[in-house]
Amino acid sequence: MRVLVADDERSIRFVLREALEELGHEVREAESGEAALHALEASAHHPFDLAVLDIRMPGTSGLDLLDRIRERWRDTAVVIITAENTFDNAVEAMKRGALDYLVKPFRVAEIQALAEKAARARALEVELRELRAGAALGRPSAGPMVGRSPAMLEVFKTVGRLAGSSVPVLITGESGTGKEIVARAIHASGPRAGGPFVAVNAAAIPRELLESELFGHERGAFTGAVEARAGRFREASGGTLFLDEIGDMPIELQAKLLRVLQSGEITPVGGRSAVATDVRVLAATHRDLAAEVAAGRFREDLLYRLRVVPLHIPPLRERPEDVEVLARHFVERYAAELGSSARHLAPATLARLEAHPWPGNVRELENAIKRALVLATGEVLAPEDFAFLDGGEGGGTDDFDAALAAEAERALGERPGEALRELVTRVERRVIEAALERTRGNQLRAAALLGINRNTLRKKIAELGLAPTGPG
Question: Cα dihedral sign for 140, 143, 145, 147?
Fold first, then answer.
């Protein structure tokens, strides 16, 4: 997140900066109310995600700044901090819309927990507003489902038929086909559209942390549990919990999930009593769960619970008529964001895109369009702007593998014991340098080319000691 820290005590600003930057957040400091207001105004086109404001500081008070933020930058979450722990201060801060209220002196863990809370709260608030706006327009707003093929028409019909119910749905399909977009559309068109949509990727979270992520934990339940956590099930209460890559969930955790689906109650890690939960569960996987059941890696009874309504998303290679409409959609969506002058696709370009097999499905097409927009020099995307799809950029795979092997040998010889870390650092440096060179130092476009966000690129540039040339 982008975080504004406003306090007249330098030591407090230092502690806050250290705690937030340790989590990867970008921090800007202000020593007075006026400096904070100036920072907010200067970032009007890219508002802060979180503002941590001292209640008393020279000039504009933290509470007055809170009013300004709630009026003009509603997506910015606000935490009020103070050395005067009074009932009036606490009530006034929360009444005016603060996310939380913190009393000095505070612990680093408290600040980091509040930052995590702010990130979740902001995401849910933005999503809820988008859902309401989409409902006012009579369409789901959680990322458009795009396509005109008969296969996608059947998917659209199924989503429509599910609009009046809250039954579990199992969405299957290869990676990159857009299973989460379909899940969001089901949520947005259903009876729980006004509630939160919470997504969890079972394959992306270490198995020892996944139980806590889903069901929450009590304070002191394990090392590092400095405070209680609600968990994703409770965060999704009244809405939808999307369990992505459910086929990768450890078998021992599947039994607990099954009990939750059967009873409607969860027990946090370290907890003694069950807590009722009201959640619609949507699940997705790229795996053949029937085969996983036969292999003993997935519970058959859980499969039946999740697959009340099955919904399959076909791969892009089986619906080539969707390539054109998807490509045009991505050009329209990303051209302005990436600062590209390209706005059109030549007929020959569309023919080339339709002939490509797209093993990475819609996600690969989306990233290909973004890459072409970043590198394009004219208003029309030509076939040669997509030469990378067929490896037609010079310096083929064999050359790359040879260069990488040489780098590996050098790292093994120069830094035994640290060879892997050294090799990763060298490769990162060269790839980032190449991306910055291609985009003439434009960090936003370079980040898009690399497939990372701009803040991550800035952090990498600083870590590697690269010169931060060009616009940020």
Answer: positive
Assess if CATH 3.40.50.300 describes domain 139-312. yes
pLDDT along the chain (472 residues), means of 10: 91 90 90 90 84 88 88 86 73 79 83 82 57 41 69 86 89 93 90 91 83 82 72 90 94 92 87 85 95 94 95 94 93 87 87 92 93 84 87 47 62 67 78 79 81 82 74 53
Query: What interhelical angle do 87-95 and 62-72 show, nearest 10?
Result: 10
Rounded Cα distance, 12 and 16, in Å: 6
How long a stretch of residues is the chain? Answer: 472
Look at residue 393 in the predicted model and tell me its pLDDT. Answer: 46
CATH of domain 316-390: 1.10.8.60
pLDDT score at 141: 38
Per-domain boundaries in the chain: 2-118, 139-312, 316-390, 397-464
pLDDT of residue 472: 53
Edge-to-edge, what's the strand order for the sheet holding 2-6?
26-30, 2-6, 50-54, 77-82, 100-103
Q: Could you tell me how many helices (H) and strands (E) the chain has, helices first?
A: 19, 14
Cis-peptide, bond into residue 315, ω within 30° of zero: no
Which residue type occupies 450? L
- 2-118 and 139-312 share one fold: yes
- Distance separating alpha carbons of residues 94 and 123, to the nearest angstrom: 19
What is residue 385's predicted lDDT score, i.e. its pLDDT?
87
pTM confidence score: 0.56
Angstrom distance (rounded) from CA 256 to CA 262 = 10
Top CATH class of 2-118 equals alpha beta
Say how far apart CA 41 and CA 469 lie, in whole Å. 25
197-201/169-172 β-pairing? unpaired
342 contacts 373 by C-beta, under 8 angstroms: yes
397-464: CATH topology is Arc Repressor Mutant, subunit A (1.10.10)
